[in-house]
Amino acid sequence: MIRLFDSLERKKIDFQPLEPGKVRIYTCGPTVYNFIHLGNARPLVAFDVVARHFRARGFDVIYVRNITDVDDKIIKRAAELSETTAQVTGRFTEEFHRDVAALSCLPPTIEPRVTDHIDDIVALTERLVARNMAYASEGDVYFSVGNFKPYGQLSHQPLDELKAGARVDVGEKKRDPLDFALWKAAKPGEPSWPSPWGPGRPGWHIECSAMAEKFLGQTFDLHGGGVDLTFPHHENERAQSQGAGGEGTFARHWMHNGFVNFNGGKISKSDVSMRVLFERAFKLRIVIARHGGEAVRTFLLTTQYRHPINFEVELQGDDPATAPLRFPGLEEAERRAEYGYLTVQRLRDALAQGKPSTEESPVAPEAEGWLARLQESLDDDFNTPGALAAHGEALALVNRILDGKLAAPKDVKRRTLERLERDLRVAASELGLLEAEPAAWLAEHRQRRCDAKKIDPSWVDSRIADRVAARAAKDFARADIVRDELKAGGIEIMDTPRGPSWRVTD
Questions:
Q1: Domain 3-130+148-158+204-258, what architecture?
Q2: Is this model's pTM higher than 0.90 or not?
Protein backbone atom coordinates (compact mmCIF):
# COMPACT_ATOMS: atom_id res chain seq x y z
CA MET A 1 0.00 0.00 0.00
CA ILE A 2 1.40 3.39 -1.00
CA ARG A 3 0.77 6.19 1.49
CA LEU A 4 1.15 9.84 0.60
CA PHE A 5 0.69 13.19 2.32
CA ASP A 6 -2.37 14.90 0.85
CA SER A 7 -1.93 18.69 1.00
CA LEU A 8 -5.69 19.20 0.92
CA GLU A 9 -6.38 16.90 3.87
CA ARG A 10 -3.10 17.75 5.59
CA LYS A 11 -2.41 14.14 6.52
CA LYS A 12 -1.08 10.89 5.15
CA ILE A 13 -3.66 8.82 3.32
CA ASP A 14 -3.71 5.32 1.87
CA PHE A 15 -3.67 5.84 -1.87
CA GLN A 16 -6.61 4.27 -3.67
CA PRO A 17 -6.65 4.96 -7.42
CA LEU A 18 -9.76 6.18 -9.13
CA GLU A 19 -9.46 3.23 -11.52
CA PRO A 20 -7.85 0.02 -10.25
CA GLY A 21 -4.33 -0.48 -11.55
CA LYS A 22 -4.05 2.99 -13.10
CA VAL A 23 -2.66 6.29 -11.81
CA ARG A 24 -3.24 9.61 -13.54
CA ILE A 25 -0.89 12.43 -12.50
CA TYR A 26 -0.64 16.09 -13.50
CA THR A 27 2.20 18.43 -12.54
CA CYS A 28 2.88 22.01 -13.57
CA GLY A 29 5.76 22.35 -16.00
CA PRO A 30 7.98 25.34 -16.81
CA THR A 31 7.19 28.71 -18.27
CA VAL A 32 9.81 28.69 -21.01
CA TYR A 33 11.40 32.14 -21.10
CA ASN A 34 14.76 31.41 -19.41
CA PHE A 35 16.93 28.64 -18.02
CA ILE A 36 15.45 26.84 -15.02
CA HIS A 37 17.06 26.96 -11.59
CA LEU A 38 17.71 24.44 -8.85
CA GLY A 39 14.37 25.17 -7.18
CA ASN A 40 12.58 24.30 -10.43
CA ALA A 41 14.49 21.03 -10.55
CA ARG A 42 13.11 19.76 -7.27
CA PRO A 43 9.54 18.99 -8.41
CA LEU A 44 10.93 17.49 -11.63
CA VAL A 45 13.00 14.97 -9.66
CA ALA A 46 10.41 14.43 -6.91
CA PHE A 47 7.54 13.56 -9.24
CA ASP A 48 9.79 11.55 -11.53
CA VAL A 49 10.40 9.29 -8.51
CA VAL A 50 6.65 9.26 -7.78
CA ALA A 51 5.87 8.08 -11.31
CA ARG A 52 8.74 5.57 -11.32
CA HIS A 53 7.63 4.02 -8.02
CA PHE A 54 4.00 3.73 -9.03
CA ARG A 55 5.14 1.89 -12.16
CA ALA A 56 7.42 -0.37 -10.09
CA ARG A 57 4.41 -1.25 -7.94
CA GLY A 58 2.54 -2.39 -11.03
CA PHE A 59 0.44 0.67 -11.87
CA ASP A 60 -0.18 1.90 -15.38
CA VAL A 61 0.85 5.56 -15.06
CA ILE A 62 -0.26 8.45 -17.23
CA TYR A 63 1.90 11.40 -16.26
CA VAL A 64 1.11 14.80 -17.78
CA ARG A 65 3.47 17.76 -17.35
CA ASN A 66 2.73 20.89 -19.36
CA ILE A 67 4.79 23.55 -21.09
CA THR A 68 3.59 27.14 -20.65
CA ASP A 69 4.54 28.89 -23.88
CA VAL A 70 2.42 32.04 -23.65
CA ASP A 71 2.67 34.29 -20.60
CA ASP A 72 3.48 37.85 -19.51
CA LYS A 73 7.08 36.86 -18.68
CA ILE A 74 7.56 35.31 -22.12
CA ILE A 75 6.24 38.42 -23.86
CA LYS A 76 8.53 40.65 -21.79
CA ARG A 77 11.55 38.41 -22.45
CA ALA A 78 10.89 38.35 -26.20
CA ALA A 79 10.79 42.16 -26.24
CA GLU A 80 14.08 42.35 -24.33
CA LEU A 81 15.75 39.98 -26.81
CA SER A 82 14.07 41.50 -29.91
CA GLU A 83 12.73 38.05 -30.78
CA THR A 84 9.31 36.57 -31.35
CA THR A 85 7.65 34.71 -28.49
CA ALA A 86 7.86 31.53 -30.60
CA GLN A 87 11.63 31.92 -30.93
CA VAL A 88 12.03 32.41 -27.18
CA THR A 89 9.79 29.51 -26.18
CA GLY A 90 11.23 27.18 -28.81
CA ARG A 91 14.80 27.76 -27.65
CA PHE A 92 14.11 27.55 -23.92
CA THR A 93 11.93 24.47 -24.33
CA GLU A 94 14.94 22.74 -25.87
CA GLU A 95 17.17 23.97 -23.05
CA PHE A 96 14.63 22.71 -20.51
CA HIS A 97 14.64 19.27 -22.11
CA ARG A 98 18.45 19.18 -21.93
CA ASP A 99 18.43 19.96 -18.23
CA VAL A 100 15.67 17.46 -17.46
CA ALA A 101 17.53 14.72 -19.33
CA ALA A 102 20.70 15.53 -17.36
CA LEU A 103 18.71 15.00 -14.16
CA SER A 104 17.81 11.47 -15.38
CA CYS A 105 14.10 12.33 -15.38
CA LEU A 106 12.03 10.16 -17.70
CA PRO A 107 9.86 12.04 -20.21
CA PRO A 108 6.25 12.49 -19.10
CA THR A 109 3.63 10.42 -20.89
CA ILE A 110 2.21 13.62 -22.39
CA GLU A 111 3.76 17.10 -22.52
CA PRO A 112 1.10 19.49 -23.84
CA ARG A 113 1.85 23.09 -24.75
CA VAL A 114 -0.60 25.85 -23.98
CA THR A 115 -0.65 27.28 -27.50
CA ASP A 116 -1.78 23.90 -28.87
CA HIS A 117 -4.85 23.93 -26.61
CA ILE A 118 -6.37 27.38 -26.94
CA ASP A 119 -9.68 25.87 -28.13
CA ASP A 120 -9.87 23.71 -24.98
CA ILE A 121 -9.16 26.75 -22.81
CA VAL A 122 -11.83 28.83 -24.55
CA ALA A 123 -14.36 26.00 -24.20
CA LEU A 124 -13.68 25.65 -20.45
CA THR A 125 -14.00 29.41 -20.00
CA GLU A 126 -17.34 29.37 -21.83
CA ARG A 127 -18.60 26.66 -19.45
CA LEU A 128 -17.64 28.78 -16.47
CA VAL A 129 -19.42 31.83 -17.87
CA ALA A 130 -22.52 29.73 -18.58
CA ARG A 131 -22.54 28.48 -14.96
CA ASN A 132 -22.23 32.03 -13.60
CA MET A 133 -18.77 31.20 -12.22
CA ALA A 134 -17.11 33.75 -14.51
CA TYR A 135 -17.98 37.02 -16.24
CA ALA A 136 -16.76 38.99 -19.24
CA SER A 137 -15.61 42.56 -18.89
CA GLU A 138 -14.32 44.63 -21.81
CA GLY A 139 -12.70 41.70 -23.57
CA ASP A 140 -11.34 40.10 -20.41
CA VAL A 141 -12.98 37.18 -18.60
CA TYR A 142 -12.65 36.80 -14.82
CA PHE A 143 -13.40 33.95 -12.45
CA SER A 144 -15.83 35.05 -9.74
CA VAL A 145 -14.21 33.84 -6.54
CA GLY A 146 -17.22 34.86 -4.44
CA ASN A 147 -19.41 32.39 -6.35
CA PHE A 148 -17.15 29.44 -5.45
CA LYS A 149 -17.73 28.75 -1.77
CA PRO A 150 -14.87 26.26 -1.18
CA TYR A 151 -12.26 28.80 -2.31
CA GLY A 152 -9.26 28.71 0.05
CA GLN A 153 -9.65 25.07 1.11
CA LEU A 154 -6.49 23.85 -0.61
CA SER A 155 -4.26 26.60 0.79
CA HIS A 156 -6.18 26.48 4.09
CA GLN A 157 -6.86 30.20 4.04
CA PRO A 158 -10.30 31.60 4.95
CA LEU A 159 -11.87 33.73 2.25
CA ASP A 160 -12.17 36.74 4.57
CA GLU A 161 -8.43 36.66 5.30
CA LEU A 162 -7.61 36.37 1.62
CA LYS A 163 -9.77 39.40 0.87
CA ALA A 164 -8.15 41.36 3.68
CA GLY A 165 -4.72 40.58 2.26
CA ALA A 166 -5.57 41.23 -1.38
CA ARG A 167 -3.31 43.88 -2.88
CA VAL A 168 -5.25 44.55 -6.08
CA ASP A 169 -7.89 47.24 -5.84
CA VAL A 170 -11.25 46.74 -7.49
CA GLY A 171 -10.87 48.27 -10.93
CA GLU A 172 -13.17 48.99 -13.81
CA LYS A 173 -12.94 45.47 -15.18
CA LYS A 174 -12.79 43.42 -12.00
CA ARG A 175 -15.69 43.08 -9.57
CA ASP A 176 -13.64 41.80 -6.65
CA PRO A 177 -9.93 41.96 -5.74
CA LEU A 178 -9.72 38.13 -5.55
CA ASP A 179 -11.22 37.55 -9.00
CA PHE A 180 -8.60 36.38 -11.46
CA ALA A 181 -8.26 36.40 -15.24
CA LEU A 182 -9.27 33.42 -17.33
CA TRP A 183 -8.91 35.31 -20.61
CA LYS A 184 -6.98 38.52 -21.30
CA ALA A 185 -7.96 40.93 -24.08
CA ALA A 186 -5.32 41.39 -26.75
CA LYS A 187 -2.81 44.22 -26.46
CA PRO A 188 -0.87 45.65 -29.41
CA GLY A 189 2.10 43.51 -30.38
CA GLU A 190 1.13 40.57 -28.16
CA PRO A 191 0.18 37.08 -29.42
CA SER A 192 -3.57 36.56 -29.50
CA TRP A 193 -6.28 34.14 -30.59
CA PRO A 194 -9.96 34.62 -31.43
CA SER A 195 -12.59 34.02 -28.76
CA PRO A 196 -16.26 34.85 -28.07
CA TRP A 197 -15.03 37.88 -26.08
CA GLY A 198 -12.69 39.15 -28.76
CA PRO A 199 -9.03 38.41 -29.54
CA GLY A 200 -6.86 37.62 -26.55
CA ARG A 201 -4.84 34.98 -24.74
CA PRO A 202 -5.31 32.69 -21.73
CA GLY A 203 -4.71 33.58 -18.13
CA TRP A 204 -2.10 31.51 -16.31
CA HIS A 205 -4.33 29.28 -14.19
CA ILE A 206 -6.93 28.21 -16.76
CA GLU A 207 -4.38 26.50 -18.98
CA CYS A 208 -3.61 23.73 -16.47
CA SER A 209 -7.28 23.07 -15.75
CA ALA A 210 -8.02 22.71 -19.46
CA MET A 211 -5.05 20.48 -20.28
CA ALA A 212 -5.48 18.27 -17.22
CA GLU A 213 -9.11 17.64 -18.17
CA LYS A 214 -8.18 17.09 -21.82
CA PHE A 215 -5.70 14.30 -21.09
CA LEU A 216 -6.73 12.91 -17.70
CA GLY A 217 -10.48 13.46 -17.60
CA GLN A 218 -12.62 15.69 -15.43
CA THR A 219 -11.46 13.81 -12.31
CA PHE A 220 -8.03 12.24 -11.87
CA ASP A 221 -5.82 10.89 -9.11
CA LEU A 222 -3.01 13.25 -8.26
CA HIS A 223 -1.88 16.82 -8.85
CA GLY A 224 1.66 17.79 -7.87
CA GLY A 225 3.95 20.78 -7.82
CA GLY A 226 6.03 23.07 -5.67
CA VAL A 227 4.64 24.44 -2.41
CA ASP A 228 4.95 27.94 -3.87
CA LEU A 229 2.20 27.04 -6.35
CA THR A 230 -0.34 26.10 -3.68
CA PHE A 231 -1.67 29.65 -3.69
CA PRO A 232 -2.76 31.16 -5.93
CA HIS A 233 -2.08 28.82 -8.86
CA HIS A 234 -3.35 25.49 -7.55
CA GLU A 235 -6.12 27.10 -5.52
CA ASN A 236 -7.32 28.80 -8.69
CA GLU A 237 -6.99 25.65 -10.80
CA ARG A 238 -9.17 23.78 -8.31
CA ALA A 239 -11.73 26.58 -8.24
CA GLN A 240 -11.98 26.75 -12.04
CA SER A 241 -12.23 23.02 -12.56
CA GLN A 242 -14.74 22.39 -9.78
CA GLY A 243 -16.62 25.51 -10.81
CA ALA A 244 -17.09 23.93 -14.24
CA GLY A 245 -17.38 20.27 -13.24
CA GLY A 246 -18.90 20.33 -9.78
CA GLU A 247 -17.78 19.34 -6.31
CA GLY A 248 -15.39 16.38 -6.16
CA THR A 249 -14.05 16.80 -9.68
CA PHE A 250 -10.47 17.60 -10.72
CA ALA A 251 -7.59 16.23 -8.57
CA ARG A 252 -8.56 13.81 -5.81
CA HIS A 253 -5.20 14.25 -4.04
CA TRP A 254 -2.58 17.00 -3.94
CA MET A 255 1.17 16.70 -3.29
CA HIS A 256 3.54 19.65 -2.84
CA ASN A 257 7.32 19.58 -2.57
CA GLY A 258 9.20 21.93 -0.23
CA PHE A 259 11.49 24.80 -1.13
CA VAL A 260 15.16 24.60 -1.98
CA ASN A 261 16.42 27.30 0.38
CA PHE A 262 19.43 29.29 -0.76
CA ASN A 263 22.06 29.57 2.00
CA GLY A 264 19.40 29.00 4.65
CA GLY A 265 16.53 31.13 3.44
CA LYS A 266 14.88 33.31 0.84
CA ILE A 267 16.64 36.05 -1.09
CA SER A 268 15.84 39.59 0.00
CA LYS A 269 15.23 42.03 -2.84
CA SER A 270 17.38 44.58 -1.01
CA ASP A 271 20.34 42.24 -0.57
CA VAL A 272 22.19 42.93 -3.81
CA SER A 273 25.20 40.72 -3.02
CA MET A 274 23.00 37.71 -2.31
CA ARG A 275 21.07 38.27 -5.53
CA VAL A 276 24.31 38.38 -7.50
CA LEU A 277 25.41 35.16 -5.82
CA PHE A 278 22.03 33.59 -6.55
CA GLU A 279 22.40 34.34 -10.27
CA ARG A 280 25.84 32.74 -10.32
CA ALA A 281 25.01 29.69 -8.25
CA PHE A 282 21.36 28.75 -8.56
CA LYS A 283 20.96 28.30 -12.32
CA LEU A 284 20.58 24.57 -12.92
CA ARG A 285 22.79 24.58 -16.01
CA ILE A 286 25.67 25.98 -13.93
CA VAL A 287 25.51 23.36 -11.17
CA ILE A 288 25.07 20.55 -13.69
CA ALA A 289 28.21 21.72 -15.51
CA ARG A 290 30.10 21.82 -12.20
CA HIS A 291 28.95 18.55 -10.65
CA GLY A 292 26.84 16.61 -13.16
CA GLY A 293 23.11 15.97 -13.30
CA GLU A 294 23.27 12.79 -11.25
CA ALA A 295 24.91 14.63 -8.35
CA VAL A 296 22.12 17.22 -8.46
CA ARG A 297 19.51 14.46 -8.46
CA THR A 298 21.24 12.67 -5.57
CA PHE A 299 21.40 15.92 -3.58
CA LEU A 300 17.68 16.57 -4.07
CA LEU A 301 16.78 13.03 -2.99
CA THR A 302 18.68 13.25 0.30
CA THR A 303 15.70 15.10 1.83
CA GLN A 304 12.10 13.87 1.59
CA TYR A 305 10.26 15.80 -1.09
CA ARG A 306 7.87 17.77 1.14
CA HIS A 307 10.51 19.12 3.51
CA PRO A 308 12.73 22.11 2.68
CA ILE A 309 16.32 21.45 1.67
CA ASN A 310 19.17 23.90 2.13
CA PHE A 311 21.49 24.60 -0.80
CA GLU A 312 24.71 25.92 0.71
CA VAL A 313 27.10 28.10 -1.27
CA GLU A 314 30.56 28.98 0.03
CA LEU A 315 32.06 32.19 -1.33
CA GLN A 316 35.87 31.90 -1.48
CA GLY A 317 36.61 35.59 -1.58
CA ASP A 318 35.00 38.96 -0.96
CA ASP A 319 33.36 39.82 -4.28
CA PRO A 320 30.13 37.83 -4.86
CA ALA A 321 30.37 38.60 -8.59
CA THR A 322 33.81 37.09 -9.18
CA ALA A 323 34.99 35.01 -6.20
CA PRO A 324 35.22 31.24 -6.71
CA LEU A 325 32.27 29.26 -5.35
CA ARG A 326 31.90 25.89 -3.66
CA PHE A 327 28.72 23.88 -3.28
CA PRO A 328 29.40 21.49 -0.36
CA GLY A 329 26.12 19.59 -0.68
CA LEU A 330 26.71 18.91 -4.36
CA GLU A 331 30.32 17.94 -3.74
CA GLU A 332 29.17 15.31 -1.27
CA ALA A 333 26.43 14.14 -3.64
CA GLU A 334 28.97 13.80 -6.47
CA ARG A 335 31.26 11.73 -4.25
CA ARG A 336 28.29 9.53 -3.43
CA ALA A 337 27.47 9.08 -7.11
CA GLU A 338 31.10 8.28 -7.93
CA TYR A 339 31.22 5.68 -5.15
CA GLY A 340 28.07 4.09 -6.57
CA TYR A 341 29.40 3.87 -10.11
CA LEU A 342 32.83 2.61 -9.00
CA THR A 343 31.05 -0.08 -7.01
CA VAL A 344 28.78 -1.13 -9.87
CA GLN A 345 31.75 -1.18 -12.27
CA ARG A 346 33.70 -3.29 -9.83
CA LEU A 347 30.74 -5.64 -9.37
CA ARG A 348 30.26 -6.14 -13.11
CA ASP A 349 33.98 -6.67 -13.67
CA ALA A 350 33.97 -9.38 -11.00
CA LEU A 351 30.94 -11.11 -12.49
CA ALA A 352 32.56 -11.04 -15.94
CA GLN A 353 35.27 -13.30 -14.50
CA GLY A 354 34.00 -16.85 -14.24
CA LYS A 355 30.72 -18.54 -15.10
CA PRO A 356 27.21 -17.52 -14.03
CA SER A 357 25.43 -19.64 -11.45
CA THR A 358 23.28 -22.36 -12.97
CA GLU A 359 20.83 -22.86 -10.15
CA GLU A 360 18.77 -20.87 -7.67
CA SER A 361 20.50 -21.30 -4.33
CA PRO A 362 20.73 -19.35 -1.09
CA VAL A 363 22.62 -16.07 -1.01
CA ALA A 364 24.29 -14.37 1.93
CA PRO A 365 21.59 -13.19 4.38
CA GLU A 366 22.91 -9.62 4.15
CA ALA A 367 21.72 -9.47 0.52
CA GLU A 368 18.13 -10.22 1.50
CA GLY A 369 15.77 -7.47 2.51
CA TRP A 370 17.54 -4.26 1.48
CA LEU A 371 15.53 -3.87 -1.76
CA ALA A 372 12.28 -4.48 0.11
CA ARG A 373 13.31 -1.80 2.63
CA LEU A 374 14.07 0.60 -0.20
CA GLN A 375 10.65 0.04 -1.78
CA GLU A 376 8.85 0.20 1.57
CA SER A 377 10.50 3.57 2.21
CA LEU A 378 9.12 4.81 -1.09
CA ASP A 379 5.72 3.35 -0.19
CA ASP A 380 5.80 5.60 2.89
CA ASP A 381 5.20 8.99 1.24
CA PHE A 382 8.17 8.58 -1.08
CA ASN A 383 10.75 8.66 1.69
CA THR A 384 13.87 8.93 -0.47
CA PRO A 385 16.37 9.31 2.43
CA GLY A 386 15.23 5.92 3.72
CA ALA A 387 15.50 4.47 0.23
CA LEU A 388 19.02 5.88 -0.20
CA ALA A 389 20.06 4.35 3.12
CA ALA A 390 18.97 0.89 1.95
CA HIS A 391 20.69 1.49 -1.40
CA GLY A 392 23.90 2.39 0.42
CA GLU A 393 23.74 -0.87 2.38
CA ALA A 394 23.74 -2.85 -0.85
CA LEU A 395 26.70 -0.95 -2.31
CA ALA A 396 28.66 -1.41 0.91
CA LEU A 397 27.92 -5.16 0.85
CA VAL A 398 29.27 -5.43 -2.70
CA ASN A 399 32.56 -3.90 -1.62
CA ARG A 400 32.75 -6.07 1.50
CA ILE A 401 32.42 -9.21 -0.61
CA LEU A 402 34.93 -8.05 -3.23
CA ASP A 403 37.37 -7.03 -0.48
CA GLY A 404 37.17 -10.57 0.94
CA LYS A 405 35.49 -9.45 4.16
CA LEU A 406 32.44 -11.72 3.97
CA ALA A 407 32.87 -15.19 5.43
CA ALA A 408 31.00 -17.41 2.97
CA PRO A 409 31.73 -20.19 0.45
CA LYS A 410 32.88 -19.08 -2.99
CA ASP A 411 29.68 -20.22 -4.72
CA VAL A 412 27.53 -18.33 -2.21
CA LYS A 413 29.56 -15.19 -2.79
CA ARG A 414 29.07 -15.57 -6.54
CA ARG A 415 25.30 -15.98 -6.25
CA THR A 416 25.15 -13.10 -3.78
CA LEU A 417 26.95 -10.79 -6.21
CA GLU A 418 24.61 -11.86 -9.00
CA ARG A 419 21.62 -11.15 -6.80
CA LEU A 420 22.99 -7.76 -5.81
CA GLU A 421 23.66 -6.81 -9.42
CA ARG A 422 20.11 -7.73 -10.41
CA ASP A 423 18.51 -5.91 -7.48
CA LEU A 424 20.68 -2.82 -7.98
CA ARG A 425 19.24 -2.53 -11.48
CA VAL A 426 15.74 -2.56 -9.98
CA ALA A 427 16.74 0.13 -7.50
CA ALA A 428 18.26 2.19 -10.31
CA SER A 429 14.98 2.13 -12.20
CA GLU A 430 13.09 3.36 -9.13
CA LEU A 431 15.47 6.07 -7.93
CA GLY A 432 16.84 7.14 -11.30
CA LEU A 433 20.37 6.66 -9.94
CA LEU A 434 23.24 4.56 -11.35
CA GLU A 435 21.33 3.98 -14.58
CA ALA A 436 24.18 5.06 -16.88
CA GLU A 437 26.92 2.78 -18.14
CA PRO A 438 29.52 3.01 -15.34
CA ALA A 439 32.56 3.42 -17.59
CA ALA A 440 30.94 6.27 -19.54
CA TRP A 441 29.72 8.07 -16.42
CA LEU A 442 33.07 7.70 -14.66
CA ALA A 443 34.93 9.00 -17.72
CA GLU A 444 32.70 12.08 -17.89
CA HIS A 445 33.00 12.62 -14.15
CA ARG A 446 36.79 12.30 -14.29
CA GLN A 447 37.03 14.83 -17.11
CA ARG A 448 34.88 17.26 -15.14
CA ARG A 449 37.18 16.86 -12.11
CA CYS A 450 40.29 17.29 -14.28
CA ASP A 451 38.89 20.51 -15.70
CA ALA A 452 38.11 21.81 -12.21
CA LYS A 453 41.60 20.98 -10.92
CA LYS A 454 43.43 21.82 -14.15
CA ILE A 455 44.85 18.31 -14.51
CA ASP A 456 46.03 17.15 -17.94
CA PRO A 457 44.62 13.62 -18.50
CA SER A 458 47.26 12.85 -21.13
CA TRP A 459 50.02 13.48 -18.57
CA VAL A 460 48.30 11.08 -16.16
CA ASP A 461 47.94 8.43 -18.85
CA SER A 462 51.64 8.75 -19.75
CA ARG A 463 52.72 8.36 -16.13
CA ILE A 464 50.49 5.30 -15.74
CA ALA A 465 52.05 3.84 -18.88
CA ASP A 466 55.48 4.35 -17.27
CA ARG A 467 54.25 2.56 -14.16
CA VAL A 468 52.93 -0.37 -16.24
CA ALA A 469 56.31 -0.63 -17.99
CA ALA A 470 58.14 -0.52 -14.67
CA ARG A 471 55.98 -3.28 -13.23
CA ALA A 472 56.48 -5.40 -16.36
CA ALA A 473 60.24 -4.98 -15.88
CA LYS A 474 59.80 -5.92 -12.20
CA ASP A 475 61.12 -2.50 -11.24
CA PHE A 476 58.62 -2.16 -8.40
CA ALA A 477 60.52 0.65 -6.71
CA ARG A 478 60.12 2.76 -9.87
CA ALA A 479 56.45 1.81 -10.09
CA ASP A 480 55.93 2.97 -6.49
CA ILE A 481 57.64 6.29 -7.24
CA VAL A 482 55.22 6.91 -10.11
CA ARG A 483 52.24 5.98 -7.93
CA ASP A 484 53.41 8.40 -5.20
CA GLU A 485 53.98 11.13 -7.80
CA LEU A 486 50.44 10.75 -9.08
CA LYS A 487 49.05 10.61 -5.55
CA ALA A 488 50.74 13.90 -4.76
CA GLY A 489 49.04 15.36 -7.83
CA GLY A 490 45.60 14.26 -6.63
CA ILE A 491 45.40 11.05 -8.68
CA GLU A 492 44.52 7.61 -7.32
CA ILE A 493 45.45 4.55 -9.39
CA MET A 494 43.08 1.57 -9.23
CA ASP A 495 44.21 -1.82 -10.52
CA THR A 496 41.23 -3.63 -12.07
CA PRO A 497 40.70 -6.80 -14.14
CA ARG A 498 40.62 -4.53 -17.19
CA GLY A 499 43.95 -2.96 -16.31
CA PRO A 500 44.86 0.15 -14.34
CA SER A 501 42.35 2.94 -14.05
CA TRP A 502 42.48 6.25 -12.21
CA ARG A 503 40.35 8.86 -10.50
CA VAL A 504 40.78 12.41 -9.26
CA THR A 505 40.74 12.55 -5.47
CA ASP A 506 39.54 15.38 -3.24
A1: 3-Layer(aba) Sandwich (3.40)
A2: yes
